[in-house]
Amino acid sequence: MLQRDYFIRLIEEFNAAISRFLTKKDDDLKRDKDLKDLYRQYVGEYDDLRNLSVDELLTYAKEQWNEEERIDKINMVAELLYAEASYKVQPLRQMLMEKSYKLFDYVEANGSTFSISRHQKMEAMRQELSNKLSQID
Fold first, then answer.
1. What is the number of alpha carbons within 13 Å of residue 8 lying toward its C-beta?
2. Contact 14/45 with Cβ under 8 angstroms?
3. Can you give the residue ranges of every domain in the chain?
4. What does DSSP assign to residue 44?
5. Using one digit for the tens of pLDDT, what is the confidence trace for 4-17?
6. 88-95: long-range contacts, CB 8 A cutoff, minimum separation 24
7. pTM value?
């Protein structure tokens, strides 16, 4: 019970940190450094997690994170990818959004917590990604 309370507090702290990150208007190098710090603090090494495919990340999650925290940590990675996509340019932006969307979708399908914020982000990504695809046609 104590461990679960600690993890819930960690999730709340993460949400506050990601919110602060998204509202800061630093240059991209500073944002990259801050983002790497958020990865390291909450889910693991940036270079390890960010460069994995969705399937590889889910395998990593199964092997590295305990079952009680797994869905929440996958959600954190999706949030971090979404945050990075918010200030990157194409084609990296699209790749990060696609990965974030797939992870949010996994959390939706396998998690037990409903999130309006997650639904709104998924809808915004769906619209932006479909606009990009229609521009290619």
1. 6
2. no
3. 2-136
4. S
5. 788 889 999 999 99
6. 90/132, 94/129, 94/132
7. 0.88
